[in-house]
């Protein structure tokens, strides 16, 4: 008895907050490009009506919307890829005439041709842990920003920082000095007091989040690997959490070369004929992991 093979449908989705641009291709032709509300259920309703017996293969670019779209599309029984936008084949014409419909058609055509490879999609738990770690990094940037604003007020008013406080470490004595230092006007003093309040709030919040981040390495799913990573010289608790949440599963890399390519610790290469040029470290890298591992190597 012959088994009937379901025809395939290739769908490129250009996702945005207010609407999605969707392009649908069959194996032989371009069916339609249209806009829809930003909801996977609306797409499912359309496909159930017009393509009830097709095998659905879809893709969208990795973006700020995370992976909930991927998970919901997969729950419908669709095959879904989340792709790196930089790896999408693009012609010069498509670059110079970029629109949402063009992008969705481009994705669908590349998907049909088998030119796309999806990125790794973490579990919801790992994605949440990753968000917590990244939130701590953003808080640290906020803290540095507030510090710079306070220093800027001193410079702006011609006040020299005492030599014993002129270093990256903000002690309680330095904060007490900032709270009483004389400024040329009442408004300047008010601005300084408000900045110090902002610093205190941000710092306390940063410490609270840091405790939560450090506690991640004690979770059952991370505990064994965390102990192994902490045995490596230079790897501290924060880098351990970062490696565990960003990589999730080391076995998803085929070999060291594949893993190193993901981190970005390799030079750029331009080879043609007898010319073989190697440049600086590649711009294709995991920004957080590469910088953290380099800092770990310094120690």
Can you give keywords for this protein?
single chain; 299 residues; alpha/beta; Nucleotidyltransferase, domain 5; five-stranded mixed β-sheet; two-stranded antiparallel ribbon; 11 helices; 51% helix; elongated; transposase activity; IS110 family transposase; DNA binding
At a glance:
The chain is an alpha/beta fold. The chain is about 50% helix and about 15% strand. The longest helix has about 35 residues.
Can you describe this structure?
The chain is α/β, with parallel strands linked by helices and 299 residues long. It folds into three domains: 8-112, 2-Layer Sandwich (Nucleotidyltransferase, domain 5), CATH 3.30.420.40; 124-217; 253-299, no CATH class. The chain is built from eleven helices and seven strands. It has helices at residues 40-50, 68-75, 92-96, 100-112, 124-156, 172-180, 186-215, 220-230, 237-247, 256-263, 287-298; strands at 8-14, 20-25, 30-36, 55-61, 79-83, 267-272, 275-281. It has a five-stranded mixed β-sheet. It has a two-stranded antiparallel ribbon with strand order 6-7. Strand 1 and strand 2 (20-25) form a beta hairpin. Helix 5 crosses helix 9 (237-247). The protein is elongated and about 80 Å long. One of its GO terms (biological process) is DNA transposition. Residues 11-156 form the Transposase IS110-like N-terminal domain. This is IS110 family transposase.
């Amino acid at each position: 008895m012959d088994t009937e093979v379901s025809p395939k449908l290739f769908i490129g989705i250009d996702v945005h907050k207010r609407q999605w641009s969707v392009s649908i291709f069959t194996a032989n032709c371009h069916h339609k490009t249209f806009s829809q509300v930003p909801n996977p259920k609306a797409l499912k309703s359309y496909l159930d009506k017009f393509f009830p017996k097709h095998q659905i293969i879809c893709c969208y670019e990795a973006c700020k919307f995370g992976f909930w779209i991927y998970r919901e599309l997969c729950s419908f029984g669709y095959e879904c890829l989340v792709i790196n936008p930089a790896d999408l084949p693009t012609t010069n014409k498509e670059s110079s005439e970029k629109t949402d419909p063009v992008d969705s058609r481009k994705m669908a055509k590349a998907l049909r041709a088998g030119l796309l490879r999806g990125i790794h999609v973490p579990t919801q738990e790992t994605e949440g842990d990753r968000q917590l770690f990244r939130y701590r990094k953003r808080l640290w940037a906020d803290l540095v920003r507030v510090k710079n604003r306070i220093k800027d007020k001193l410079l702006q008013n011609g006040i020299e920082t005492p030599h014993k406080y002129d270093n990256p470490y903000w002690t309680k004595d330095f904060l007490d000095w900032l709270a009483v230092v004389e400024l040329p006007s009442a408004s300047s003093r008010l601005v300084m007091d408000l900045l110090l309040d902002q610093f205190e709030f941000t710092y306390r919040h940063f410490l609270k989040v840091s405790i939560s981040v450090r506690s991640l390495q004690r979770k059952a799913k991370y505990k064994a690997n965390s102990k192994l990573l902490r045995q490596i010289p230079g790897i501290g608790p924060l880098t351990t959490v970062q490696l565990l949440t960003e990589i999730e599963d080391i076995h998803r890399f085929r070999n060291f070369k594949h893993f190193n390519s993901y981190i970005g610790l390799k030079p750029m290469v331009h080879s043609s004929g007898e010319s073989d040029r190697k440049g600086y470290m590649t711009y294709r890298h995991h920004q957080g992991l590469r910088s953290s591992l380099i800092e770990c190597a310094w120690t």
